[in-house]
Amino acid sequence: MVTMKVRADTAVCLAAGQCALMLPAVFDQRDDDGIVVVLDEEPPAELHDAVRAAVLGCPSGALRVDEG
């Protein structure tokens, strides 16, 4: 079974919101500045492809996944 851990570097985040738009079950934005918040650090397997797509779509490169 493949596990996934989602990480966000809030210091790098540009608050573009692409991740939250693509996958609101896993990502959100803080109300005060729009910086990414990871809602589900270990999403279920059925969301892994969508998480990978959101990570690739992040314009700042603030998101990453560790898989094992």
Task: Kindly describe this structure.
The protein has 68 residues and is α+β, with helices and mostly antiparallel strands. The chain has a single domain, classed as Alpha-Beta Plaits (2-Layer Sandwich), CATH 3.30.70. Helices cover 22% and strands 24% of the residues. It is built from two helices and four strands. It has helices spanning 18-22, 48-57; strands at 4-8, 27-29, 36-38, 63-67. It has a two-stranded antiparallel ribbon. The N and C termini lie close together (8 Å).
Give a quick rundown of the structure.
By secondary structure, the chain is α+β, with helices and mostly antiparallel strands. It has helices at 18-22, 48-57, and strands spanning 4-8, 27-29, 36-38, 63-67. The strands form two sheets. It has a two-stranded antiparallel ribbon. A two-stranded antiparallel sheet has the order 2-3.
Q: Domain count, please report it.
A: 1
CATH class, please?
Alpha Beta
The ordered string of helix (H) and strand (E) elements is: EHEEHE
Q: pLDDT average, as an integer?
A: 96
Keywords: 3Fe-4S, Electron transport, Iron, Iron-sulfur, Metal-binding, Transport
Protein name: Ferredoxin
Cofactor: [3Fe-4S] cluster
InterPro entries: Divergent_4Fe-4S_mono-cluster, Fe-S_cluster_ET
